[in-house]
Amino acid sequence: MRAAIFEDVRKIIYREDYPKPTVSPDYTIVKVSYCGICGSDVSNYKYSHYQTPIIMGHEFSAEITEIGENVSRLGFKIGDKVTGINPVIDIDKDVPRHIGIIKDGAFAEFVKIHKNYLYKIPENVSLEEATLIESFAAIIRALKLSKITKNQKIMIIGGGNMGLATLNVLMGEKDPEYVMVVEPHEFLREKAKELGANITLPPSRVKINKYFRKNGKPTFVFECVGNEQALMMAIDSIKKGGTIVLEGVQREKITFPIFSMTIKEICMIGTWGHDKEDIKTTLDLFAKNKVKASEFISKIIPLKDIQSGFEEYLQPGERKFIKILVKI
User: Fold this and answer.
1) Has residue 93 got a pLDDT over 80?
2) pLDDT value of residue 94
3) The domain containing residue 212 runs over which residues?
4) I need a labelling partner for 4 at 20 to 30 A (CA). Which of 35, 58, 89, 235 fits?
């Protein structure tokens, strides 16, 4: 089968003779239609966090072509349009089978999916749009953990895929008093405006503080970047007693201003992944057309050109896309 194999830092090999997986009782074999390039994939491509060699890719849409007997009992059948989503698991009790991280993923013609990771795509959702279900499930979890209520003043730091998905759900579900999106790239700031942000700004303390003086500091900050500068901005910006939600992944050690966090009585919450409840909530939002998934798809490339797609995420200068999909 056709597949793109990650072998080493910034090295993906395209093959047309990679072994096709075989079905077993608790698994299905699905034929992949599209798979999105996730920020975690890009980080692995740049730094090689995962085992190698491996086929990455976990944001995908597909059709069931073979089905194990224990999966068909759950109501799935050959021809169903599905996605496979890695849920949060209890590592003390469950065996990790994470697609594209531990097991071969969806940057391939076929992928083997465990029954616990399999979900039907709502009928009104296109195969392209379905690749965004996983991203939005992570947002649903972040909002659930934050316990955010309606009519809040909100700041989102980072206007990439996760920041804009956070904005999209907040505007539709929480009726915020205002949402500010801070993002260095003009293209992404314009996208944030299209999705309903009240104000979009580059990371300029002068401009940000000017807005706060007139409208008040945010009660919630969603940090969607994952670096020290973004975290410091969040702590500096948040209103006393407010909540900071860490959606960005910070892998390196940082200097942490614990005194500022203490005197401002900040609640800081980390969030990672999504559980089955989050995924089902997200599928319901998609089914009810409450997210604008198509707005996030900037470009679709063929599998054989996948390395160029990864390199585009790492190019310096102005970024002019949100999500790149790979057509399998």
Assistant:
1) no
2) 67
3) 136-270
4) 89
